[in-house]
Amino acid sequence: MPETQPHPEPWEYTLSIPHDPRAVTVCRRTLRLILTLHGLIRLADTAELLATELVANAVLHTKGPATLRVHWSAGVLRIGAWDADPEPPPPPHDLTDLTDAENGRGLALIRACADLWGWQPLARNGSRGKYVWCELTAAA
Fold first, then answer.
1. DSSP string covering the chain
2. What pLDDT does 66 receive?
3. pLDDT digits (tens, 9 = 90+) for 59-90
4. Which of 35, 42, 62, 118 counts the most CB atoms within 10 A of its CB?
């Protein structure tokens, strides 16, 4: 099946995530479907890796629900995860320092694979928390 051209109009999807490790797989598969349907399959592998790290951090390191947000506008795909922990994420390590590490690579992978990343405090549904995001720019 040939890839369709990306739709030029902005779009956004939001997926509410329960505090359940299985949510990581649901988010990854949902993201691939969204990108396929919008003609952005070439971004899917990297986007899945980034979303997996963001959602896994939100589910594994916090106690409440989380939200995955996927936004496309002007050739930029932004993937973000909100969680109910208002504490900032730890600074990312250098990947070369983590070759044998079993954990702690999430933000280092995001920094290495995304074109841009960041975080901000954000309240959602009356809960304080944070939003950690990253961007991928689609090649012309």
1. -PPPPPPSS-EEEEEEE-S-TTHHHHHHHHHHHHHHHTT-GGGHHHHHHHHHHHHHHHHHS-SS-EEEEEEEETTEEEEEEEES--SPPPPPPPGGGGTT-SSS-HHHHHHHHSSEEEEEE--BTTB--EEEEEEEEPP-
2. 92
3. 988 888 899 999 999 999 999 999 988 888 87
4. 35
Band (98; pLDDT cuts 50, 70, 90): very low
47, 51, 107, 111, 126 from 93: Cα distances, Å: 20, 18, 7, 9, 32
Closest CA to 82 of 23, 28, 124: 124
Q: At which residue do the structure tokens 């920094």 appear?
A: 111
What end-to-end distance do the CA atoms of the chain give, in Å? Answer: 21
Q: Which two tokens stand for residue 114?
A: 């995304």
Per-residue pLDDT at 96:
56
